[in-house]
Fold each of these.
Amino acid sequence: MNMKLNLGLAVLLGVVTMHVAQAAELFTGGYAREFQTMGMMKILDADGNHMVTEAEFNQYHTAVFNGLDRNQDGRLDQSEWTGTQSEKMATLGTGGYLRELSNLAMMDAADANQDHVVTKEEFLKFQGKVFVKLDRKADKQIDAQEFVAKLVGS
Ligand SMILES: [Ca+2]
Ligand SMILES: [Ca+2]
Ligand SMILES: [Ca+2]
């Protein structure tokens, strides 16, 4: 292999690694896999028009937060975060999604000030970033294609 080709390969690998790292910063691969499904899109699409608006996205995640916040103090500690197995939560998402959400790596991603508590504000702000990431056409709605689009390495 000549030098030029080696260099090109190294640059390419660098670019790929960078993209993976950026996506990983926002959420885990497992979370992306379980959230970005048509089943989950259907749950978020409250009015059933095959588009998820920012309002619907926000409304859904507010319900998830409230479902997790057992003592209703507007803050999620680690035990609340990992406790997605309740009956209330079971109606809010697929089993796979709830399992991946309960991962502490996801709590870490949402915990902006790293104090091991996720406030409602932190959670919704985090989900706002997820929305922007999914909304590639930046028209404030997520269509089915955007909803399930692979984010890693693209
Ligand atoms: Ca809709
Ligand atoms: Ca709480
Ligand atoms: Ca926090």
Amino acid sequence: MGDLRGKLMAVPKSKISKSKRGMRRAHASLKCETINECPNCGEIRRPHHVCPACGFYNAMEIVNISEQEQEIEEDVA
Ligand SMILES: [Zn+2]
């Protein structure tokens, strides 16, 4: 039947061995986020996302970064 302790009913903390606790947490580690290099400018970007540095995706300019920067500067002034 396998080990069903802690799955079917509440089990006191003191009854769970360090080994069993470690087995449960074996898959609990955080994984690194995947990053790719932008083929246009070489900046690091997330896969399936528009490059935040140059605004390119799939070898096309999707977002005009330089125009956006000008708009931000105008808002500040
Ligand atoms: Zn880029």
